[in-house]
Amino acid sequence: MAAGNDGKSEPDYPARYATQWGLAVGAVFYDRTLTDFSHRAGTTPLTYVTAPGAYFEGDADLGLGIYSTLPGNNYGVKDGTSMATPHVAGVIALMLSAKKGLTDAQVRQIVTTTAANSLA
């Protein structure tokens, strides 16, 4: 679930429900540093990971982001935690195709223990 894009100290809903199920996903730059706009994990223990959500260098907008679909049957670049979340969903889809029957708890455990940037 996308954590949110206002730079707050904790995820918005529904990502705040990652205390019980699912994963909250924050956005990182190309160099794996947390973006300034991504909501943080907060102080409440929850399952939080990050994925590519922008491609900026410092404050300089390089005009690059995550390639995505756009309205009007177009393609282009966007940034945000909503761009990061499909990366995590794709990883989980591959995991479930390789090992059917993984539970939500098992998926959360595998993702958070193998992710470069995670909190569990």
What report would you give on this structure?
The protein has a 3-stranded mixed β-sheet. It is globular, with a radius of gyration of 14 Å. The chain is of the alpha+beta class and 120 residues long. A hairpin with a 3-residue loop joins strand 5 and strand 6 (74-78). It is built from 2 helices and 7 strands; from the N terminus they run E-E-E-E-E-E-H-H-E.
Question: Which characteristics define this entry?
Answer:
120 residues; alpha+beta; Rossmann fold; three-stranded mixed β-sheet; 24% helix; globular
Which geometry do the CA atoms define? globular
CATH superfamily grouping: Peptidase S8/S53 domain
**CATH fold name:** Rossmann fold
CATH class, anyone?
Alpha Beta
Quaternary class: single chain
Distance between the termini: 15 Å
> Which stretches are poorly predicted, pLDDT < 50 over at least 5 residues?
none
CA gyration radius, whole angstroms: 14 Å
Strand residue content: 25-35%
**Number of spatially distinct domains:** 1
